[in-house]
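FAQ: What does the model actually see?

It sees only this:
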Amino acid sequence: MHPRIAITGVGLTSPIGNDLPSLRSALLAGRAGVGKMSPRYMGEWPAGICDFPADRHQSRREARRGTRAGQIAVFCGREALADAGLKPAGLDLSRLGVFIGTTEHGNVETENEVAGIKEYGYDVKYWSPHHNPRSIANNPAGELCLNLGATGPHCCLGAACAAGNYGLIHGAQQLVLGEVDLALAGGVSEAIHTFGIFAGFLAQNALAPLDGNPARASRPFARDRRGIVIAEGGCLFLLERLDDARRRGARILAEILGWGVNTDATDFVLPDPERQAQAMRLALERAGLAPGEIDIISAHATATREGDAREVQAIREVFGTDCQAWVNSAKGYYGHSMGAAGALELAGNLPSFADGWVHPAINIGEVDPACALPRLVVNQPAKPAGRLRRILKNSFGMLGINAVTVIGAYQPD
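And it is asked to produce this:
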């Protein structure tokens, strides 16, 4: 029998809060945090922008040499350890693993260098000697390890918009295998700092315009949804084997009950509801649960026309047209935080185990009939009569990568 895996700490930054209580407060209040920014060459667009105290855990020299994604990883990792009641000085750092999902790392650094040398006639002697370590795929996880002095395994998992969930899954798997004793796992994103992502989504007709009010630009499930609002952010969980957590008297926030990962293999961009449904079933099977035992479905729901409708089609296939799980989405609050999305959105739902509320999807004037579900939580939070015990978190990404997790309230033996 595999060991049970516990979540004992959460560190995060988002456009609506830099810790779990602040994030949760905004989610229950329906308070959006989308602002405006002007990517290079593109004019003004809505974006989810974080404002966190990066100097809390990094020197100015570290921050200058590193990346925005690295800053986010350091902040989230340090905050997760503190939230779990742990200090690096008291740990065997050779048994701490760092597993971070990312979507787009490296684009920002290369774009900035090309723009910089343009001012000098493209003379590469002005190219930064820090570019290679800044742009390599494992940078955010590596920067966190450098900051902590952690010498266990680290990696970044490129899994498009499923990456936050995939990072969590990989951390749990490494604990099950006994490769590490502690894992910092989740996802980070610096997406808003690269014009290429804005331009790419615009070229796909998938980028939400300002629409007058940036706070309403992201509208998952709404009939009038216009596309993706790009956001930055990060969320890392501190994971431990449950027996280890109990021995040290840790506060246990939740357990990872199951996961499912698969690939559509059908299209570069358009999701396949059949494979999404299969990923959900794989996660439920690993968790030993039936669909009717899930209380909350945290939907991926990017606010794109096809993406939302196809995900709801997959949910109906697994849970039935009379799906009795409560369904929500967080992207209306701060946009799509890409590699961080799955982890951040899961974190925002974890307090439901304690407070009994389900936060809503917001900015919905009228639900698209293609997205209608019996317990879709719209604009106002829901307070179910019974206890909320299990969450299914969907994360789906380009090139057909699907990652689904099932998280449960802690159940003592």
